[in-house]
Amino acid sequence: MLEIKSLVHSYDGEKSIDYPDWTVEKGNHAIILGNSGSGKTTLLHLIGGLMPPKKGNILIAGENLSEKRKSNLDRFRGENIGIVFQKPHLVRSLSVKENLSLSQYLGQKKTDSTRVTEVLTHLAIDDLADRKVHQISQGQAQRVSIARAVINSPKLLLADEPTASLDDENCKKVIDLLKSEAEDSGATLIVATHDHRVKSEFQNQLVL
Hints:
Blueprint: E1 2-9, E2 17-18, E3 22-24, E4 30-33, H1 40-47, E5 55-60, E6 63-64, H2 70-80, E7 81-84, H3 96-106, H4 113-122, H5 138-150, E8 156-160, H6 168-185, E9 188-193, E10 204-207
Helix pairs in contact: 3-5
């Protein structure tokens, strides 16, 4: 599903980060662990095709992201990758269901209201469908963010620090929820975090 080879990245004026080669097989959920500043969020963004690496290759389902033009990369991301960011980044002027429909549109998918209802129901937030983003709680917004990430049935689901501000009980619930949604969508889940409470939940671990 995912293969990283000779990957190097750096921001202007900063020291380069050399990432170890890493492979994640389909359905083999994995975790990227590291302290703040270790480069784990950067790696997640590289895997998600949100920015190009300085050197090296990232292969997802056999497709090399480094060889894709920006327009093709955007299309590939929309069709194959779902991302749960640290902050939801939902469109506040739209309702919950409209945010999901927008993701379908941007992912070159046909707008499917049945699929939207299905995902919201599975996440137990179907009663929020018509609410605007500013009318829901932070916890509800996190679930909507997960719903948006899985709405197009991605092959790869990425989550950046999903448990950082949660207590132990809710930490376990969110990881279980992400795994459940990944499996329901047929996706491989990769979580980037400094939260060692979730380390035991993943056998495939990359420590930076």
